[in-house]
Specification:
about 170 residues, alpha+beta, four-stranded antiparallel beta sheet, 9 strands, about 20% helix, globular
């Protein structure tokens, strides 16, 4: 979804995390027309609070859902149920827009940070590099982006103010 709230195609340029063998805990979030599973600290589009961590959602909160695969429209749908599940496989694709539609639900590409805007800003140099020079390596290899993201994460974790603003 672009800045004009239009659904557009935004290619996956890298994976912030990709491990198909690892097991992880997820929140299974169900609305009338969609179900998604994402980690507690993955950002999801909330009607009134923008992008928030999945762990902050409660029943009856509203999230942005694609109306139909055949339309370019979205609706706010109430969450009917949230359950904890353990599943195999981790994936966090990075798109140019920094958002993605997964199982018809609008989510951020970012996790761990409290703010989608901060996450998107922090990864801007990686997106710029990608635009100028193309892919650093095979898209299935997460090493270049993980190295960059981990350096940023370690740097900001050591800033006293970061705990309140970023994490």
């Amino acid at each position: 979804i672009n800045d004009d709230q239009q659904i557009i195609y935004s290619p996956i340029i890298a994976f912030l995390h990709r491990d198909l063998d690892e097991y992880a805990s997820y929140k299974r979030i169900r609305t009338k027309n969609a179900i998604i599973e994402l980690s507690d600290r993955h950002l999801i589009h909330h009607r009134y609070d923008g992008f928030i961590w999945a762990e902050k959602l409660i029943k009856n909160d509203e999230i942005l859902v694609l109306s139909s695969k055949n339309t370019n429209k979205t609706n706010w749908e109430k969450i009917l149920d949230i359950t904890d599940v353990n599943k195999q496989g981790l994936m966090a694709p990075l798109t140019e827009q920094g958002t993605i539609i997964v199982n018809n639900i609008h989510v951020s590409c970012y996790a761990l940070v409290k703010s989608h805007t901060i996450g998107h800003f922090a990864l801007a140099p990686y997106r710029w590099y990608h635009r100028l020079f193309g892919q650093m390596s095979d898209n299935n290899n997460t090493t270049p982006i993980l190295t960059y993201a981990n350096i940023l994460l370690q740097f900001f974790k050591n800033l006293p103010i970061a705990k309140d603003i970023i994490f």
